[in-house]
Amino acid sequence: MEGMLPHSSLMALQDLLSPADDIDQDSEDEKPQTAASSMTPASIGNSKKIAGKAVERNNTTKDSNNKDIWDEEEIQPGAENIDYDDPRPEPEYEIIYKQAVTTEDVYLQMSNKSQATASCDQIVVRIKLPDSKISEIDLDVKKSFIDCRCPNYKLGLHLPQPVDHKSGKAEWNGKTSTLSITLKMIREYDFMNL
């Protein structure tokens, strides 16, 4: 019995931790409430002003005569380029990350570059278009979407990272019928990988 609290000590501890209200504690569904459990993130700050601003913001963004199902912010960029009724198959493609590695990176390891894709600065998309000619290919590159069409195939590809679509390079390999598109990635924290 050594180390155990007497019954009176346990009851005193229960009275200390239980709420002041006269609530039946026999119910298993009810949990004891403490001051910390009643405090939420919404309890901090002035709730009246924030609620008023939120209502005003919602009223200004929605038109009463607007019958659109989605707002402009909810539509994924590049979704307007996907044609679901087009019977052409999607060609085989691969996405390769490319990194400019110098001797300083290999031998001295003085930069923040690693082997991870976060340190890569370019993305290469290789699209295999068998039985196609370069004159038949229509390529449109946007910040986060590639649209490649030819008579036999169509590809609508959402890119994993935003790219600089104005300074890309596309190469056609006639022997393998492969289109290689090299694009510079634009990421928010690229300055850390210099």
UniProtKB/TrEMBL annotation:
Compositionally biased spans, kind Polar residues: 34-46
Domain of life assignment: Eukaryota
Occurrences of domain PIH1D1/2/3 CS-like (ranges): 90-184
Biased composition (Basic and acidic residues): 54-69
Gene Ontology BP, a term: axonemal dynein complex assembly
Region of interest called Disordered, as start-end residue ranges on this chain: 1-89
Gene Ontology MF, one: dynein intermediate chain binding
A cellular component term, taken from the record's GO annotations: cytoplasm
Similarity comment: Belongs to the PIH1 family.
Protein name in the entry: DgyrCDS9030
Species of origin: Dimorphilus gyrociliatus
Biological classification of the source: Eukaryota, Metazoa, Spiralia, Lophotrochozoa, Annelida
